[in-house]
Amino acid sequence: MAEEAKKQVEEKEVEAVQAEATEAEETKEEKAEKATAKAGKRSAKALREAEEKAAKEERKAKIAAGEVEAESKPKQVAKPTRPRIERQGKKFREAAKLVDKTKQYTLAEAIELAIKTSPVKFDATVELHVNLNVDPRHADQNVRDTVVLPAGTGKTVRVAVFDDEKVEGADLSGADTIIKALDKGEINFDVLIATPAQMPKLGKYARLLGPRGLMPNPKSGTVTTDVAKAVKEVKAGRVEYRVDSTGIVHVPCGKVSFGPQKLEDNIRAVLQNVKSNKPASIKGTYIKAIHLATTMGPSITVATSEV
After folding, report:
1. Half-sphere exposure of residue 53, counting CA atoms within 13 Å on the CB side?
2. Domains 91-154+237-307 and 155-235 agree in fold
3. 155-235 — its CATH code?
4. Distance CA 298, CA 296 (A)
């Protein structure tokens, strides 16, 4: 009995020593965790990333020394890009089959084909794109003007006049009324016309109106002393065009519902206006290419001899 009691005492002593050792290890881990910061260079994430970076650098050094062979990753085979026509919708592909890309159509033929190939259910806009032999970086070659379309644009345009007097035909008049709306960030018009004397008042709204293309400008005919005439022209179908950075002019010339004759009148008016604005510094070919297209429809090449 005495021996058993002695053994039990010894076992308890051993267990106590083991428990003390375990507590000491846990205390060390707790201290290590406390030493690790929640963020910064001493955070757990930062320490892990540092270890990974060190291991990566060590492996690079071994590969450079020839101690370890670099793993060769299997090359991914790039899928060939499908032709653009195959990436278009079904209706567009069917309409595009009717257009001969190698042919230059007369204006009358191009208009008939544009109306026929319009793939949308709504009344699409007929767009004219004229590629000019100009460099817009030069001020004298920055082609820009306005033209009144004989048959109109087919759109209802809201015209505001920034002047103290009311103007017949304008949807919104009065400088104070427009200023109150602009102060609230409200824009209830598509075209803003102002007199030269009223322009200083619009200066502080340049950041609101400028990016939207609504800031009055003498070159676009929206800063004028004859406000009544400007309103009448805008309502009649005046459009502004300006050559883009690639030397192309884009002009909407009416709706599909206009029919061939009205569209031809509008397009010829635009082409003649563009031709009359040829810069004096341009020698030789001025109009490089003409294309006609409807909203979401295929492009049709028009012969440059039509100008």
Report:
1. 6
2. no
3. 3.40.50.790
4. 7
Q: Convert the pLDDT of each residue in 241-274 to its tens digit.
A: 899 999 999 999 999 999 999 999 999 999 999 9
Architecture of the domain whose range is 91-154+237-307: 2-Layer Sandwich (3.30)
Report CA Rg, the chain. Answer: 38
What residues have CB less than 8 Å from 122, skipping those under 6 apart?
295
Whole-number pLDDT of residue 83: 76
Residue length of the chain: 307
Q: Cα 125–126–132 angle (5° rounding)?
A: 130
Tell me: the pLDDT tens digits for 23-59? 555 555 555 555 556 666 677 788 888 888 888 888 8
Domain boundaries along the sequence of the chain: 91-154+237-307, 155-235
Q: Where is pLDDT greater, at 86 or 104? A: 104
Token pair for 140:
């004298």
